[in-house]
Specification:
Layout lengths: L10 E2 L9 E5 L5 H6 L4 E4 L8 E4 L3 H12 L8 E2 L4 E2 L4 E2 L4 E2 L4 E2 L4 E2 L4 E2 L4 E2 L4 E2 L4 E2 L4 E2 L4 E2 L4 E2 L4 E4 L4 E4 L2 E4 L5 E4 L4 E2 L4 E3 L5 E4 L4 E2 L4 E2 L4 E2 L4 E2 L4 E2 L4 E2 L4 E2 L4 E2 L4 E2 L4 E2 L4 E2 L8 E3 L4 E2 H40 L1
Parallel strand pairs: 1-2, 2-3, 3-4, 5-8, 6-9, 7-10, 8-11, 9-12, 10-13, 11-14, 12-15, 13-16, 14-17, 15-18, 16-21, 17-22, 18-23, 21-24, 22-25, 23-26, 25-28, 26-29, 27-30, 28-31, 29-32, 30-33, 31-34, 32-35, 34-36
Antiparallel strand pairs: 19-20, 36-37
């Protein structure tokens, strides 16, 4: 703490709206001027700043902000038990500490483990597992044979285990190939609202431990994600692709089918990775190429109009020169 160690704050607010009783935060240099004029009582910073405020200094400011927010906004614990309107199969096993909300459905031979929470309208199919401490928000659906590890969060409207998009063409007609595999989600994964993860054709689609999937993400059948992958909003992965540990797909990035992206690969927003990439690659563009190459391409695109005008001027000059030479020859 830099300043008044006895400072009391009663909430956390952005720099622009914080008052004397609030803690605010400065996690990016571009907001430094706004911080100087903020009315916040104290500001969380990564290193001591020249600010007229008390400062809470933590080298990992984003992490510290998360801890502070959890303190001020604790998640209310769900009451254990099964709501009277829920439908739970006789063969299902529900731990006494789990919570099953109104109109939730739990299928045959499914296990809901200690401290798990199924909010209103959740549907969990047959032979599923919801691991300890996992939370499924309203109207999410787990198809049959889906498995969630411990402390998994599934947000509203997500669908795990729907059929993979598999068809065979016969006589000009698309015939469905049965998708009889499953989805496995490892520990500490978070899955955003309206995200969809397809079941495998035969074996499993797997989401590695600690991975974070944003809203509206599509994961195709047979895909395997390594640990701690980050898939931002509207990213999509086609079937049978493998992602190593720590892969990042930015918003609306796409990855083609039957590819492999090594550990730590990053794909920029709106890019399309259509070839496999080794570990540590940074890709951008459609089709995606190494980031530095893409930057050169974009730089040239910005100069194309002027280059076009220069070429046209040269062509006209050449035409005039050729015309003059022709007239001279005629004399």
């Amino acid at each position: 703490m830099r300043g008044d160690a006895a400072r009391v704050v009663r909430g956390v607010r952005p720099l622009s709206s914080a008052g004397p009783d609030d803690l605010s935060f400065l996690t990016a240099a571009k907001y430094r001027d706004e911080a100087r004029t903020s009315r916040a009582g104290a500001i969380l910073v990564a290193k001591e700043e020249e600010l007229p405020h008390d400062q809470l200094v933590c080298a990992d400011a984003p992490w510290a902000l998360g801890e502070v927010l959890r303190h001020f906004h604790p998640v209310a614990a769900a009451a254990p038990g099964v709501h009277p309107s829920a439908v739970v199969a006789v063969s299902a096993v529900v731990d006494a500490t789990a919570s099953i909300g109104p109109q939730a459905v739990v299928g045959e031979s499914t296990r809901i483990e200690a401290g798990a929470v199924l909010h209103a309208g959740v549907v969990v199919g047959a032979r599923c597992r919801v691991g300890p401490g996992s939370v499924i928000y309203p109207r999410a659906v787990l198809y049959d044979d889906t498995e969630l590890g411990a402390r998994v969060t599934v947000h509203a409207g997500a669908v795990l285990g729907a059929d993979g998009f598999g068809y065979a063409a016969r006589g000009g007609v698309l015939v469905k190939v049965p998708q009889v595999g499953r989805v496995v989600v490892e520990d500490d994964v978070e899955i955003g609202a309206n995200t969809t993860i397809d079941r495998a054709t035969l074996e499993e689609t797997r989401i590695g431990a600690g991975s974070k999937l944003d809203n509206l993400v599509q994961v195709g059948h047979n895909v395997r994600l390594g640990k701690s992958c980050v898939l931002c909003g509207q990213a999509g992965i086609a079937g049978s692709t493998r992602l190593g540990d720590g892969v990042v797909l930015a918003g609306q990035a796409g990855v083609g089918g039957h590819l492999e992206l090594g550990d730590g690969v990053q794909v920029a927003a709106k890019s399309a990775a259509l070839q496999s990439a080794p570990a540590g690659s940074k890709l951008a563009g459609v089709p995606a190429v190494p980031l530095n190459e893409w930057r050169r391409q974009v730089s040239w695109l910005g100069r194309l109009a002027e280059l076009g005008r220069r070429v046209r001027r040269l062509e006209k000059a050449q035409e005039r020169t050729a015309g003059a030479a022709s007239e001279e020859d005629g004399r």
